[in-house]
């Protein structure tokens, strides 16, 4: 098997893909959005609970998707918990840049380093959207939008 | 230009290795591995004969058609129009002017929806499709529904992916004005009993459109014997160039139908007060057509005729059986679409890996398949899968291609299983 495949499907990703964290509906959610990737049929819903100061007190998700998408959603929901909406938004930007190759994993803040395991998608242009779909959906939820589609 | 007689030229043995040598792309590598191309249902590769026919047009006789009063324009017009005759014979139509060139199968269906649908269907009229249609045979009818208030009905399929004939019968009524169905499912390979469907639809006075995009490459078609009113397909799945498609329509219907687009080539006279339409087939072919592509499609059909669709079909059926056996032996693999009559397509899911991950991994092993919803989202929902992996077989595939797929799936299992 090729090295870039091993790089893409690291143990951590396979583990998050198989046993996603925060994989449930969230009754107390204040914001939720649905994300679709019409190309591959991936669909997920991100649930966020924001407090009065727009801090993310809780985050979870449900959906069906490939290992990359599920792992990305799993790690993301772990990471945004306890952040302000603004922080979550800038995390999205840093993650997005890493995936598209505009930035790199060394530019990730220390507390986001975990996400560098997803940098392997750079070698797979058709898979970048799988990694970024949960993040796009989370940002949509923050903005109060209900639905996004990557096209 | 003549087409070869199928029976005379069908070789006794089907020499797939010699056939592969006609397809230059099959000798290239993908990720340093021999290319196992198993995505012909999306679009087929082109033989040297088609590539040469297209380049020869541009090298020797390119000009616009139906316009120039000089030798090369006349020559290219003759070849372009000659392609209509090749197609007429290929699908058994009565007249060459019943063969309308379009860009692809999708445009052919839209032409019928616009020209026939908008003018001959009205509020409350019913159009029946099936649950296994490609989006190309769903969306144009939904648009017509929203515009004209027609009613769109969907005939169900079984868990195996077969049409539920009794339910189709129940949907038919004097309100049914059009039945528009795929001859073959692009996702599951199911062959629909179209002769039966056509006869039953005609019995209630409905017209029938057959979407032959998938079937035309595997099964001989005779539109007159079938009695269908419209038959459509794309050139690019039939080993021809992209950018060319075909609409066959019965003369009486095409005659009554108004043009689809206005412009040059489709008129007989124009004043600022009014224009009169050109005769068939030009009435439906506004503007400069896909000239080289049409000629390339003619070359593709001659190539297919040279091998014989029966021989191609037999070779593909043998490979489909082999593929089905090999894949079924893999643990956790489930085939989606197990109808007794099917051709050339095997869709599947793995318990432990998502189709998208599978496609990425096997791509690195040189295996090209499609993963996703295959432009048939309602069907995915019906079969209760978000997506499938689809391996589809063309006239040039061999057992080595299937073995490469099965081996690559072993790597998927190693990683995810
Ligand atoms: C059954 C069926 N109908 C219609 C189409 C649309 O063909 P095209 O994209 O060439 O217009 C396809 C192509 O995938 C198909 O498989």
Structure description:
By secondary structure, chain A is an alpha+beta fold. Chain A contains 5 helices and 4 strands. Chain A has one domain: Sufe protein. Chain: A (Alpha-Beta Complex), CATH 3.90.1010.10. Chain A is 39% helix and 19% strand. The termini of chain A are far apart. Chain B is an alpha/beta fold. In chain B, strands 4-10-9-8-7-5-6 form a 7-stranded mixed β-sheet, sandwiched between helices. Chain B has a 4-stranded antiparallel β-sheet with strand order 13-14-17-16, with helices on one face. The interface between A and B is medium-sized, with 22 and 20 residues.
CATH architecture of chain A: Alpha-Beta Complex
Rough outline of chain A = globular
Main sheet specs of chain A: 4 strands, mixed
Secondary-structure element order of chain A, N to C: HHEEEHHHE
Compose a concise summary of this entry:
The complex is a heterodimer of chains A (151) and B (417). Helices cover 39% and strands 19% of the residues of chain A. Chain A is an alpha+beta fold and 151 residues long.
